[in-house]
Amino acid sequence: MTEAVVIIGSGLGGYNVARELRKADAEVPIVLISRDEAGFYSKPMLSNALAGKKTAASLVMKSAEKMADEIKARIVAQVSVDALDTAAQTLTLSTGEVLPYRDLVLALGADPIRLPLAGDAADTALSVNDLDDFARFAQALDAGPAGTPVKRVAILGAGLIGCEFANDLLAREVQPTVIDLAERALARLLPPEGSARLQDKLVAGGVSFRFGVSVASIAHGAQGLRVSLSDGSTVDTDLVLSAIGLKPRTALAAAAGIQTGRGVTVNRHLATSAPHVYALGDCAEVDGTLLPYVMPLMQQARALAATLSGKQTAVSYPAMPVVVKTPAWPTVVCPPPAGAEGTWTVTSTDEALEARFAPEGQSEPLLGFALQGKAVTQRQALAALVPPLLA
Protein backbone atom coordinates (compact mmCIF):
# COMPACT_ATOMS: atom_id res chain seq x y z
CA MET A 1 0.00 0.00 0.00
CA THR A 2 1.30 3.45 -0.92
CA GLU A 3 2.30 5.83 1.82
CA ALA A 4 0.76 8.81 0.02
CA VAL A 5 -1.60 11.27 1.65
CA VAL A 6 -4.15 12.16 -1.03
CA ILE A 7 -6.06 15.45 -0.86
CA ILE A 8 -9.16 16.07 -2.97
CA GLY A 9 -9.54 19.79 -3.55
CA SER A 10 -7.22 22.68 -4.41
CA GLY A 11 -8.93 25.47 -2.53
CA LEU A 12 -7.69 27.09 0.66
CA GLY A 13 -8.51 23.92 2.61
CA GLY A 14 -6.66 21.52 0.35
CA TYR A 15 -3.59 23.64 -0.20
CA ASN A 16 -3.24 24.76 3.41
CA VAL A 17 -3.39 21.26 4.84
CA ALA A 18 -0.81 20.23 2.23
CA ARG A 19 1.46 23.11 3.22
CA GLU A 20 1.12 22.40 6.92
CA LEU A 21 1.71 18.68 6.38
CA ARG A 22 4.85 19.36 4.37
CA LYS A 23 6.18 21.53 7.23
CA ALA A 24 5.55 18.68 9.66
CA ASP A 25 6.81 15.85 7.42
CA ALA A 26 9.36 16.47 4.71
CA GLU A 27 9.16 12.95 3.27
CA VAL A 28 5.54 11.81 3.09
CA PRO A 29 4.27 11.66 -0.52
CA ILE A 30 1.42 14.11 -1.13
CA VAL A 31 -0.99 13.92 -4.06
CA LEU A 32 -3.51 16.72 -4.61
CA ILE A 33 -6.44 16.27 -7.00
CA SER A 34 -8.29 19.22 -8.51
CA ARG A 35 -11.30 19.58 -10.78
CA ASP A 36 -9.86 22.84 -12.19
CA GLU A 37 -6.41 24.06 -13.18
CA ALA A 38 -5.32 23.99 -9.50
CA GLY A 39 -3.85 27.47 -9.39
CA PHE A 40 -3.62 28.87 -5.86
CA TYR A 41 -5.86 31.85 -5.09
CA SER A 42 -7.84 33.19 -2.17
CA LYS A 43 -11.55 32.53 -2.62
CA PRO A 44 -12.62 35.32 -0.21
CA MET A 45 -11.05 37.83 -2.63
CA LEU A 46 -13.66 37.02 -5.28
CA SER A 47 -16.28 39.25 -3.67
CA ASN A 48 -14.12 42.40 -3.68
CA ALA A 49 -12.06 41.84 -6.83
CA LEU A 50 -13.96 44.29 -9.04
CA ALA A 51 -13.01 47.36 -7.04
CA GLY A 52 -9.37 46.31 -7.29
CA LYS A 53 -9.75 45.83 -11.07
CA LYS A 54 -8.71 42.20 -10.69
CA THR A 55 -9.25 39.59 -13.38
CA ALA A 56 -9.56 35.86 -12.88
CA ALA A 57 -6.00 35.46 -14.16
CA SER A 58 -4.55 38.14 -11.87
CA LEU A 59 -6.22 36.59 -8.81
CA VAL A 60 -4.06 33.47 -9.21
CA MET A 61 -1.08 33.88 -6.88
CA LYS A 62 0.77 30.72 -7.92
CA SER A 63 0.30 28.20 -10.70
CA ALA A 64 -0.21 24.50 -10.06
CA GLU A 65 3.38 23.92 -11.20
CA LYS A 66 4.74 26.39 -8.65
CA MET A 67 2.59 24.91 -5.91
CA ALA A 68 3.75 21.39 -6.77
CA ASP A 69 7.36 22.53 -6.47
CA GLU A 70 6.72 24.47 -3.25
CA ILE A 71 5.02 21.64 -1.36
CA LYS A 72 6.87 18.83 -3.14
CA ALA A 73 3.64 17.20 -4.22
CA ARG A 74 2.08 15.59 -7.26
CA ILE A 75 -0.82 17.77 -8.41
CA VAL A 76 -3.39 16.17 -10.71
CA ALA A 77 -5.35 18.98 -12.33
CA GLN A 78 -8.63 19.01 -14.27
CA VAL A 79 -9.56 15.56 -13.05
CA SER A 80 -12.57 14.44 -11.03
CA VAL A 81 -12.99 11.51 -8.67
CA ASP A 82 -15.50 8.95 -9.90
CA ALA A 83 -15.43 6.57 -6.93
CA LEU A 84 -14.01 6.11 -3.46
CA ASP A 85 -13.43 2.64 -2.03
CA THR A 86 -12.70 3.02 1.68
CA ALA A 87 -12.11 -0.71 2.19
CA ALA A 88 -9.44 -0.91 -0.51
CA GLN A 89 -8.24 2.65 0.24
CA THR A 90 -8.37 3.66 -3.41
CA LEU A 91 -9.82 6.40 -5.59
CA THR A 92 -10.91 5.93 -9.18
CA LEU A 93 -10.23 9.06 -11.20
CA SER A 94 -12.03 10.26 -14.33
CA THR A 95 -8.85 9.40 -16.28
CA GLY A 96 -9.28 5.75 -15.29
CA GLU A 97 -6.35 5.80 -12.88
CA VAL A 98 -6.89 3.89 -9.64
CA LEU A 99 -5.04 5.83 -6.96
CA PRO A 100 -4.27 4.20 -3.59
CA TYR A 101 -3.90 6.28 -0.44
CA ARG A 102 -2.54 5.92 3.06
CA ASP A 103 -4.79 8.70 4.29
CA LEU A 104 -7.40 10.66 2.38
CA VAL A 105 -8.42 14.28 2.97
CA LEU A 106 -11.72 15.52 1.61
CA ALA A 107 -11.40 19.26 0.97
CA LEU A 108 -14.32 19.26 -1.42
CA GLY A 109 -15.81 22.67 -0.65
CA ALA A 110 -19.45 23.53 -1.21
CA ASP A 111 -21.82 24.31 -4.06
CA PRO A 112 -24.07 27.38 -4.34
CA ILE A 113 -27.67 26.70 -3.35
CA ARG A 114 -29.90 26.99 -6.41
CA LEU A 115 -33.47 28.22 -6.03
CA PRO A 116 -36.18 26.39 -8.04
CA LEU A 117 -37.13 29.43 -10.11
CA ALA A 118 -39.66 29.67 -12.94
CA GLY A 119 -39.31 31.77 -16.09
CA ASP A 120 -37.57 31.44 -19.43
CA ALA A 121 -34.41 33.11 -18.07
CA ALA A 122 -34.14 31.23 -14.78
CA ASP A 123 -31.02 29.45 -16.03
CA THR A 124 -29.22 32.76 -16.64
CA ALA A 125 -28.74 33.42 -12.90
CA LEU A 126 -25.05 33.25 -12.04
CA SER A 127 -23.24 32.34 -8.84
CA VAL A 128 -19.62 33.08 -7.95
CA ASN A 129 -18.05 30.25 -5.97
CA ASP A 130 -14.69 29.78 -7.65
CA LEU A 131 -12.29 31.35 -10.11
CA ASP A 132 -14.07 30.02 -13.20
CA ASP A 133 -17.38 31.38 -11.88
CA PHE A 134 -15.77 34.79 -11.37
CA ALA A 135 -14.44 34.78 -14.93
CA ARG A 136 -17.96 34.08 -16.26
CA PHE A 137 -19.44 36.79 -14.04
CA ALA A 138 -16.86 39.38 -15.11
CA GLN A 139 -17.45 38.50 -18.76
CA ALA A 140 -21.22 38.84 -18.28
CA LEU A 141 -20.74 42.28 -16.70
CA ASP A 142 -18.90 43.41 -19.83
CA ALA A 143 -21.46 41.95 -22.25
CA GLY A 144 -24.66 43.75 -21.31
CA PRO A 145 -27.45 45.01 -23.57
CA ALA A 146 -26.21 45.93 -27.06
CA GLY A 147 -22.72 44.86 -26.07
CA THR A 148 -22.34 47.61 -23.47
CA PRO A 149 -21.31 47.00 -19.84
CA VAL A 150 -24.06 45.96 -17.45
CA LYS A 151 -25.56 48.78 -15.39
CA ARG A 152 -28.10 46.83 -13.28
CA VAL A 153 -27.57 43.64 -11.27
CA ALA A 154 -30.16 41.91 -9.09
CA ILE A 155 -28.53 40.06 -6.19
CA LEU A 156 -30.46 37.25 -4.53
CA GLY A 157 -29.47 37.21 -0.87
CA ALA A 158 -28.57 39.97 1.61
CA GLY A 159 -26.10 37.87 3.57
CA LEU A 160 -22.34 38.15 3.71
CA ILE A 161 -21.60 37.45 0.04
CA GLY A 162 -24.60 39.37 -1.28
CA CYS A 163 -23.66 42.53 0.60
CA GLU A 164 -19.99 42.21 -0.34
CA PHE A 165 -20.79 41.88 -4.04
CA ALA A 166 -23.27 44.76 -3.83
CA ASN A 167 -20.53 47.00 -2.43
CA ASP A 168 -17.99 45.75 -4.95
CA LEU A 169 -20.28 46.36 -7.93
CA LEU A 170 -20.50 50.03 -7.03
CA ALA A 171 -16.90 50.36 -8.23
CA ARG A 172 -18.16 49.36 -11.69
CA GLU A 173 -20.89 52.04 -11.57
CA VAL A 174 -23.47 49.28 -11.41
CA GLN A 175 -26.78 49.75 -9.60
CA PRO A 176 -27.30 46.61 -7.49
CA THR A 177 -30.71 45.61 -6.16
CA VAL A 178 -30.42 43.16 -3.26
CA ILE A 179 -33.44 40.91 -2.65
CA ASP A 180 -33.99 38.84 0.49
CA LEU A 181 -36.86 37.16 2.33
CA ALA A 182 -35.37 38.42 5.60
CA GLU A 183 -36.24 41.86 6.93
CA ARG A 184 -32.71 43.25 6.95
CA ALA A 185 -29.12 42.75 5.77
CA LEU A 186 -26.88 40.21 7.48
CA ALA A 187 -29.80 39.28 9.69
CA ARG A 188 -28.05 36.18 11.03
CA LEU A 189 -24.89 38.03 12.01
CA LEU A 190 -25.75 41.59 13.05
CA PRO A 191 -28.12 43.20 15.54
CA PRO A 192 -30.84 45.34 13.90
CA GLU A 193 -28.91 48.56 14.53
CA GLY A 194 -25.86 47.16 12.74
CA SER A 195 -27.95 46.03 9.78
CA ALA A 196 -29.54 49.47 9.53
CA ARG A 197 -26.19 51.29 9.52
CA LEU A 198 -24.75 48.98 6.86
CA GLN A 199 -27.86 49.32 4.71
CA ASP A 200 -27.84 53.11 4.99
CA LYS A 201 -24.22 53.31 3.84
CA LEU A 202 -24.80 50.95 0.92
CA VAL A 203 -27.96 52.78 -0.13
CA ALA A 204 -26.04 56.07 -0.06
CA GLY A 205 -23.57 54.49 -2.47
CA GLY A 206 -26.28 53.38 -4.90
CA VAL A 207 -27.54 49.98 -3.65
CA SER A 208 -31.28 49.25 -3.44
CA PHE A 209 -32.78 46.67 -1.07
CA ARG A 210 -36.02 44.69 -1.31
CA PHE A 211 -36.72 42.85 1.95
CA GLY A 212 -39.50 40.48 2.96
CA VAL A 213 -39.91 39.06 -0.54
CA SER A 214 -38.66 36.04 -2.45
CA VAL A 215 -37.99 35.59 -6.16
CA ALA A 216 -40.61 33.66 -8.11
CA SER A 217 -39.27 33.84 -11.65
CA ILE A 218 -36.74 35.37 -14.00
CA ALA A 219 -37.88 36.11 -17.55
CA HIS A 220 -36.49 37.81 -20.62
CA GLY A 221 -37.92 41.29 -21.05
CA ALA A 222 -37.83 44.02 -23.65
CA GLN A 223 -34.77 45.62 -22.04
CA GLY A 224 -32.96 42.87 -20.20
CA LEU A 225 -34.38 40.59 -17.51
CA ARG A 226 -37.48 40.91 -15.38
CA VAL A 227 -37.39 39.40 -11.88
CA SER A 228 -40.86 38.70 -10.47
CA LEU A 229 -41.18 38.78 -6.68
CA SER A 230 -43.53 37.03 -4.28
CA ASP A 231 -45.50 40.23 -3.57
CA GLY A 232 -46.39 40.66 -7.25
CA SER A 233 -43.85 43.40 -7.93
CA THR A 234 -40.99 43.17 -10.41
CA VAL A 235 -37.36 44.28 -10.70
CA ASP A 236 -35.88 45.01 -14.11
CA THR A 237 -32.21 44.17 -14.41
CA ASP A 238 -29.47 43.19 -16.84
CA LEU A 239 -27.99 40.34 -14.78
CA VAL A 240 -28.94 38.17 -11.81
CA LEU A 241 -26.39 37.02 -9.23
CA SER A 242 -27.50 34.35 -6.74
CA ALA A 243 -25.79 34.59 -3.34
CA ILE A 244 -28.20 32.78 -1.04
CA GLY A 245 -25.74 30.37 0.52
CA LEU A 246 -23.71 27.21 0.06
CA LYS A 247 -24.40 23.50 0.42
CA PRO A 248 -21.44 21.28 1.42
CA ARG A 249 -20.40 18.73 -1.19
CA THR A 250 -21.20 15.38 0.38
CA ALA A 251 -22.07 13.16 -2.59
CA LEU A 252 -18.69 11.41 -2.90
CA ALA A 253 -18.55 10.63 0.81
CA ALA A 254 -22.17 9.48 0.97
CA ALA A 255 -21.71 7.17 -2.04
CA ALA A 256 -18.76 5.58 -0.24
CA GLY A 257 -20.85 4.92 2.86
CA ILE A 258 -19.30 7.69 4.93
CA GLN A 259 -21.60 9.37 7.43
CA THR A 260 -22.94 12.74 6.33
CA GLY A 261 -25.34 15.28 7.82
CA ARG A 262 -25.44 18.85 6.66
CA GLY A 263 -21.82 18.25 5.69
CA VAL A 264 -19.36 15.37 5.84
CA THR A 265 -19.55 14.36 9.51
CA VAL A 266 -16.22 14.55 11.35
CA ASN A 267 -15.07 14.56 14.96
CA ARG A 268 -12.68 16.98 16.64
CA HIS A 269 -9.77 15.18 14.94
CA LEU A 270 -11.52 15.81 11.60
CA ALA A 271 -11.88 12.05 11.10
CA THR A 272 -14.89 10.73 9.22
CA SER A 273 -16.72 7.49 9.98
CA ALA A 274 -14.34 5.67 7.58
CA PRO A 275 -10.81 4.77 8.71
CA HIS A 276 -8.05 6.92 7.20
CA VAL A 277 -10.51 9.43 5.71
CA TYR A 278 -10.66 13.02 6.96
CA ALA A 279 -12.48 16.19 5.91
CA LEU A 280 -12.02 19.92 6.43
CA GLY A 281 -13.22 23.26 5.15
CA ASP A 282 -16.63 24.11 3.72
CA CYS A 283 -17.61 20.46 3.25
CA ALA A 284 -16.90 19.41 6.85
CA GLU A 285 -19.42 19.38 9.69
CA VAL A 286 -17.10 19.47 12.69
CA ASP A 287 -18.64 18.24 15.92
CA GLY A 288 -22.06 19.24 14.60
CA THR A 289 -20.98 22.69 13.39
CA LEU A 290 -20.53 24.18 9.92
CA LEU A 291 -18.26 27.25 9.82
CA PRO A 292 -17.63 28.31 6.19
CA TYR A 293 -15.03 30.95 7.02
CA VAL A 294 -11.28 31.25 6.58
CA MET A 295 -10.18 31.27 10.23
CA PRO A 296 -11.85 27.95 11.15
CA LEU A 297 -10.39 26.41 8.00
CA MET A 298 -6.88 27.48 8.99
CA GLN A 299 -7.32 26.02 12.47
CA GLN A 300 -8.51 22.77 10.90
CA ALA A 301 -5.57 22.62 8.47
CA ARG A 302 -3.00 22.97 11.25
CA ALA A 303 -4.66 20.38 13.47
CA LEU A 304 -5.17 17.86 10.67
CA ALA A 305 -1.59 18.20 9.41
CA ALA A 306 -0.35 17.40 12.90
CA THR A 307 -2.59 14.33 13.07
CA LEU A 308 -1.49 13.12 9.63
CA SER A 309 2.15 13.47 10.65
CA GLY A 310 1.61 11.21 13.65
CA LYS A 311 0.62 13.61 16.43
CA GLN A 312 -3.09 13.23 17.15
CA THR A 313 -4.41 16.77 17.47
CA ALA A 314 -7.98 17.89 18.06
CA VAL A 315 -9.05 21.10 16.36
CA SER A 316 -9.68 24.07 18.62
CA TYR A 317 -11.37 27.34 17.77
CA PRO A 318 -10.51 30.61 19.46
CA ALA A 319 -12.85 33.57 19.05
CA MET A 320 -12.91 34.09 15.28
CA PRO A 321 -14.17 37.49 14.10
CA VAL A 322 -15.40 37.66 10.51
CA VAL A 323 -14.37 40.67 8.42
CA VAL A 324 -17.20 41.76 6.12
CA LYS A 325 -15.67 43.27 3.00
CA THR A 326 -17.91 46.33 2.71
CA PRO A 327 -15.66 49.41 2.47
CA ALA A 328 -18.76 51.63 2.39
CA TRP A 329 -19.19 50.75 6.08
CA PRO A 330 -16.39 48.54 7.48
CA THR A 331 -17.87 45.73 9.55
CA VAL A 332 -16.42 43.00 11.75
CA VAL A 333 -18.61 40.49 13.53
CA CYS A 334 -17.86 37.71 16.00
CA PRO A 335 -21.18 35.84 16.07
CA PRO A 336 -22.39 34.44 19.40
CA PRO A 337 -22.42 30.62 19.55
CA ALA A 338 -25.51 28.99 18.07
CA GLY A 339 -28.24 28.87 20.68
CA ALA A 340 -26.51 31.29 23.05
CA GLU A 341 -28.97 33.21 25.22
CA GLY A 342 -28.40 36.90 25.73
CA THR A 343 -28.99 40.40 24.36
CA TRP A 344 -27.15 42.96 22.28
CA THR A 345 -26.01 46.22 23.87
CA VAL A 346 -25.33 48.81 21.19
CA THR A 347 -23.32 52.03 21.42
CA SER A 348 -23.03 54.21 18.33
CA THR A 349 -21.84 57.53 17.02
CA ASP A 350 -21.88 59.01 13.52
CA GLU A 351 -18.54 57.33 12.81
CA ALA A 352 -18.74 54.03 14.68
CA LEU A 353 -20.99 51.33 16.11
CA GLU A 354 -20.09 48.83 18.82
CA ALA A 355 -22.45 45.99 19.76
CA ARG A 356 -21.74 43.48 22.51
CA PHE A 357 -23.67 40.26 23.07
CA ALA A 358 -23.80 38.99 26.67
CA PRO A 359 -26.26 37.18 28.96
CA GLU A 360 -29.34 39.24 29.73
CA GLY A 361 -28.63 41.95 32.30
CA GLN A 362 -24.89 41.25 32.34
CA SER A 363 -21.81 42.63 30.64
CA GLU A 364 -19.79 39.42 31.09
CA PRO A 365 -19.00 36.97 29.73
CA LEU A 366 -18.80 38.61 26.32
CA LEU A 367 -20.24 35.99 23.96
CA GLY A 368 -20.00 37.91 20.69
CA PHE A 369 -19.66 41.36 19.20
CA ALA A 370 -20.14 43.48 16.09
CA LEU A 371 -17.97 46.47 15.22
CA GLN A 372 -18.56 48.99 12.44
CA GLY A 373 -16.93 52.12 11.10
CA LYS A 374 -13.98 53.32 13.17
CA ALA A 375 -14.83 50.78 15.90
CA VAL A 376 -13.37 47.92 13.82
CA THR A 377 -9.98 48.82 15.31
CA GLN A 378 -11.17 47.16 18.55
CA ARG A 379 -11.41 43.73 16.93
CA GLN A 380 -8.40 42.13 18.61
CA ALA A 381 -9.12 43.64 22.01
CA LEU A 382 -12.69 42.33 22.10
CA ALA A 383 -11.78 38.97 20.56
CA ALA A 384 -9.47 38.40 23.54
CA LEU A 385 -12.49 38.69 25.85
CA VAL A 386 -14.66 36.12 24.05
CA PRO A 387 -14.38 32.48 25.24
CA PRO A 388 -13.06 29.99 22.69
CA LEU A 389 -15.72 28.41 20.50
CA LEU A 390 -13.98 25.06 20.89
CA ALA A 391 -11.35 24.94 23.63
CATH topology of the largest domain: FAD/NAD(P)-binding domain
Q: How big a fraction of the residues is strand?
A: 25-35%
Question: How many beta-strand segments?
Answer: 24
Number of domains: 3
Radius of gyration: 22 Å
CATH class group of the largest domain: Alpha Beta
Summarize the amount of helix as a percent range.
10-25%
Secondary-structure-derived class: alpha/beta
Mean pLDDT: 96
Overall, the morphology is globular
The strands making up the biggest β-sheet line up spatially as 3-2-1-7-18
Q: For this structure, what is the CATH homologous superfamily of the largest domain?
A: FAD/NAD(P)-binding domain
Question: What do you see in this structure?
Answer:
This protein has 391 residues and is α/β, with parallel strands linked by helices. Helix content is 22%, strand content 27%. The chain contains nine helices and 24 strands. Strands 3-2-1-7-18 form a five-stranded parallel β-sheet, with helices on one face. It has a five-stranded antiparallel β-sheet with strand order 20-21-24-23-22. A hairpin with a 6-residue loop joins β20 and β21. The model has no long low-confidence stretch (mean pLDDT 96).
Set out the fold topology:
Layout lengths: L4 E4 L3 H13 L5 E4 L22 H4 L4 H8 L2 E3 L4 E5 L4 E4 L4 E3 L2 E4 L3 E3 L18 H12 L9 E5 L3 H10 L5 E6 L11 H14 L2 E4 L3 E7 L2 E6 L4 E4 L1 E4 L3 E3 L2 H5 L8 E3 L10 E3 L4 E3 L7 H15 L13 E3 L6 E4 L8 E6 L3 E7 L9 E6 L5 H5 L8
Parallel strand pairs: 1-2, 1-7, 2-3, 7-18, 9-10, 9-15, 10-11, 17-19
Antiparallel strand pairs: 4-5, 5-6, 8-16, 12-13, 13-14, 20-21, 21-24, 22-23, 23-24
Helix pairs in contact: 1-8
